[in-house]
């Protein structure tokens, strides 16, 4: 059977191999020569443009000194690289969204800072649809994306997750007061199972004010940051680019309300909408 064209899984595996290699300060050429493959081939694998080969990846991991559970996990992912992820059942999902879904499924811990809009993993479908409509997405595409959003939320349900939400996101009416009332109720329900903390608008200045982002931490590889733009997003995985976001998380956490205080504020805003 012919192999599938490289998709989000190949992108995720390749990015992890590159981060592991760079963490060892080894050049692509040096690793390729040690493994016995061309540097162009390793470059295509690292950039998700070619499906990885189990034997090649096994040799790369040996050169990088990756052993134990991490080695077995990566090799298992390579063996299953042709298996479609849930996102591939949704033909309208963008490549960037598919990559984010793959990263979320592989991450050990996810930190979501959303200053202006409720985080995607916590959105109700009515709220998510209203946001998409605001972005100018057509009704047909919204239906496809909402299906993908449900799958994304389901797939990440067991992932360790911390949400930091700006107070403005709670008070801005998206869709309608009824949509917001239901969304805030969902946040209260989720807050009993996952960490949901609010950053008050009247608090001190912090790096998070420069914009929202998702920080994805991995067991054996450096962190990845996803920064969402209006209709797309970018991934940052080089330390000099991700370090400022690690600092931003520290500052956001320092000014955020506790989980109990956050629940009280969410409940208060919800009651205000009832009046």
Automatic annotation (TrEMBL):
It comes from the Bacteria. Residues 17-71 form the HTH cro/C1-type domain. InterPro entries: Cro/C1-type_HTH, DUF5753, Lambda_DNA-bd_dom_sf. GO terms for molecular function: DNA binding. This is HTH cro/C1-type domain-containing protein.
């Amino acid at each position: 059977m012919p192999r599938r064209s490289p998709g989000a899984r190949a992108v995720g595996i390749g990015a992890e191999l590159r981060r592991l290699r760079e963490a060892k300060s080894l050049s692509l050429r040096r690793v390729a020569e040690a493994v016995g493959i061309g540097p162009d081939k390793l470059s295509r694998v690292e950039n998700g443009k070619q499906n990885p080969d189990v034997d090649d990846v096994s040799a790369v991991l040996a050169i990088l000194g990756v052993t134990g559970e991490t080695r077995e996990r990566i090799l298992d992912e390579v063996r299953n690289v042709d298996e479609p992820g849930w996102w591939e059942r949704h033909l309208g999902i963008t490549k960037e969204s598919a990559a984010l879904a793959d990263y979320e499924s592989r991450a050990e811990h996810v930190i979501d800072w959303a200053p202006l809009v409720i985080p995607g993993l916590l959105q109700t479908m009515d709220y998510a649809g209203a946001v998409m409509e605001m972005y100018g997405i057509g009704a047909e595409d919204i239906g496809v994306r909402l299906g993908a959003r449900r799958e994304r939320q389901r797939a990440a349900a067991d992932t360790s997750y911390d949400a930091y939400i700006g107070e403005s996101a709670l008070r801005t009416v998206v869709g309608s007061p009824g949509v917001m009332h239901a969304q805030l109720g969902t946040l209260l329900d989720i807050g009993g199972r996952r960490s949901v903390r609010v950053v008050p608008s009247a608090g001190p200045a912090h790096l998070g004010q420069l914009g929202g982002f998702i920080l994805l931490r991995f067991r054996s590889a450096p962190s990845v940051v996803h920064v969402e733009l209006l209709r797309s997003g970018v991934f940052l995985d080089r330390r000099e680019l991700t370090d400022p976001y690690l600092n931003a998380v520290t500052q956001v956490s320092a000014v955020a309300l506790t989980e109990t205080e956050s629940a009280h504020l969410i409940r208060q805003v919800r009651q205000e909408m009832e009046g």
